[in-house]
Amino acid sequence: MPGIASRIAGFSFIPLGLLSSPGWSGWPLALGYFLAIFLGQGVAVVLALRTPSLHAKDAGMPRSPVRLSIVIPAKDEAQDLALVLDDLRHQELPGTVSTEVIVVHAPSSDGTEEVARKHPSVTKAIAEPPLPPGWVGKSWACDRGYRAASGDVLLFLDADVRLSPEALRAALSELEQRHVDLVTFGARVVMRSFWENVVLPLYTQFVLTYFMPHRSNRPGSRRAIANGQFLMVTRARYERIGGHERIRNYVLEDVKLAQEVKRSGGSIRFVWTPEMVTTRMYRDRKEMFEGLSKNVHGTEFRATRQVALLVGVVLLFLSPIVVLGMGLAYLSLPWTLVSLLAIFVTLLKQAAFQRSLQAPLRYAFTYPLGVVFYVAMLWRSLVRGVRGRGVTWKGRTYPTP
């Protein structure tokens, strides 16, 4: 009996301590903290809802005659390249649209060059010349492809995307009907490994929050974003801004290209197309860390921005866990309940993004691990940027502009 009584007393100590703690006086501050977390987590949800989407059944059909040049840079992507070239053979295009496919292949070890030369979809296969000083590899390949292209509309396409039969006509229709200079499709990211499912749903949220894609579609807005995996632009606007040569030293060449289009008075149409464009961005944790580190570094490094992002991510995602531990340690009812609510809201939001990206819901519970992954990338970006070391991607190191 004494043992049972002591256990009951032990279990009842925590709630009694919470109720009797002076922490009751902290309710206003605790509720203010919860409101900040709630609003912060809600930003990504609101932005996702405001980003325009386009489904395959609603894809339009271009009416005007057009010559479309499709430029695909490829390096060590033989399997993916063959798949996307197969997709291009099955595009549902009207007779008024003529196409050419230009593959610019860098030296590879997996037979990428052979796929580029022999696939029936390829009009021109170009061996990428040695990278000149001051150029980023992808921009150099895109520039080489553009100079071999004859179309009045250019589509820069990554080798690792998959396209539904409606994708190209949908993009051409958007370009024509919206009277814009650049159309870019947001691809649904395919996630298979543990780390992909942990990290990439957060990546989607951070992109939405940082770039606010829906604002790119507003003519009067300075916001600009493009997805280099699927970027269609009129030749006239592309040449007016100086093409990829103008942005040759920027690692995030797609964002910089969109910014230049806006700066020159052009217009952008960003559309979320999860049914028509998909991609598996990374195959393992190391490749993902390197690739996303390149992205978080930004088009131009600014230490103040990286510090602000680092602090914001920690406060929004990790602070509720720390506050919960402190609330329990100090027997504070307001802070314990508020932190539990904040964690619940974060989990709920994370589950919603998992579902929209067709990822298993159980990975919503791993969001703290994904946040730590991003904190490590932001810290690495900050340290490398301050030291002037730039970024590394696909075996090449680029200085920060």
Helix proportion of residues, in percent? Answer: 40-55%
Highest CATH level, the class of the largest domain: Alpha Beta
**How many separate domains?**
2
| CATH T-level topology of the largest domain | Spore Coat Polysaccharide Biosynthesis Protein SpsA, Chain A
Biggest beta sheet summary: 7 strands, mixed
**How large, in whole angstroms, is the Cα Rg?**
25 Å
- The topology string of helices and strands comes to HHEHEHEHEEHEEHHEHHHEEHHHHEE
As a percent range, the share of strand residues is 5-15%
Spell out the CATH superfamily of the largest domain.
Spore Coat Polysaccharide Biosynthesis Protein SpsA, Chain A
Question: What structural keywords apply?
Answer:
single chain; seven-stranded mixed sheet; three-stranded mixed sheet; 53% helix; 14% strand; globular
Protein model, in words:
- The protein is an alpha/beta fold.
- The protein folds into 2 domains: 23-49 and 300-398, no CATH class; 56-187 and 227-283, Spore Coat Polysaccharide Biosynthesis Protein SpsA, Chain A (Alpha-Beta Complex), CATH 3.90.550.10.
- The chain is 53% helix and 14% strand.
- The protein contains 15 helices and 12 strands.
- The strands form 3 sheets. It has a 7-stranded mixed sheet, with helices on both faces. Strands 5-10-7 form a 3-stranded mixed sheet.
- β1 (66-74), α3 and β2 form a beta-alpha-beta unit.
- The longest helix is centred in the C-terminal third of the chain and has 27 residues, at 303-329.
